[in-house]
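Progress note, project year one: complex with S-adenosylmethionine.
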Amino acid sequence: MVDAERFAEYTKTPDSAWNLVEGKVLNYVLERYYKDRFDWLKRKENELIPATITKYDSLIPKDFRVLDIGTGTGNVAHTLVEFGVDPRNIVGLDNDPNMLKTSNHPDGVNKLHAGVQNFVPKLKEEFPGFGNFDMVTANMVFHLLNYGDYVKSLKQIKQVMAERSQLYIMLPHPLREDIHTIAAYHDRRTLDEITPWCEPVEYKVKTINEYKRGLAQAGLNTWKIRTTGADQGLEDNFLLSDEAVWSHIRADTNHLTKAKPPHYFRLWLMASR
Ligand SMILES: C[S@@+](CC[C@H](N)C(=O)[O-])C[C@H]1O[C@@H](n2cnc3c(N)ncnc32)[C@H](O)[C@@H]1O
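Model obtained:
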């Protein structure tokens, strides 16, 4: 069980993974996503959109809806609201009631207590107006699910994505300097990570190919896959395939000292319907 208050405290510290890496990537993704929408709107209705508009919030349709999977303490929801999404149009989903009880979510965000593997029936029942999301975010969740549940979840998500909707996924990179070992990568065993805010968390290690294959199996189209870390650029292609991971491992079989992966090493993907 997660101690939600301690978790919230941790994510606020300047050197937390959220502040050093995840929040930055989400901001970058949102900026790009809204910029694309802006260009699209400009093309489509250029007589209605004044050229002087610089803020995204005036461009985000009033009914722009986001589903935030594993919404946790509300960090993702906060970023979305800062970008101009109406909190009443966000549904934050989590299977841990403690996390949903935290006060860190922006006022107005809708909370759904459900497991991502089978949330659609409960979503329909509790929020009947929310069948079609314009964006789905899943920050640091799918490494906690085994492959079968990952694919089940993606199939559920696809059912509630609107036609132009995008799915944003962030994960610990399967090769992380702090917890992953060569043997773990090879065997893809379950790993426990001791966290300051809860009992040890089980990491269901999956390879990069499995993350991609799961998306394809659910009928989603992965159009972007990138790595990032505390000391690495957002658009880098560092260890972006299992083959590259293996050659990295083979280059230094004793320990990952030479060219070791960055701190808070992450994999992130974007997928469309
Ligand atoms: C590491 S936290 C990430 C929180 C938040 N997304 C963020 O970026 O700060 C993972 C969250 O996923 C939730 N979670 C784990 N397994 C889940 C599942 N099967 N269905 C829904 N939520 C889940 C946990 O309760 C936790 O709140």
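The pocket of S-adenosylmethionine is lined by residues 2, 11, 18, 22, 70-73, 75-76, 93-96, 99, 115-117, 139-141, 144-145 (CB under 6 Å).
The CA atoms of residues 14 and 121 lie 39 Å apart.
No further modelling is planned for this target in the current period.
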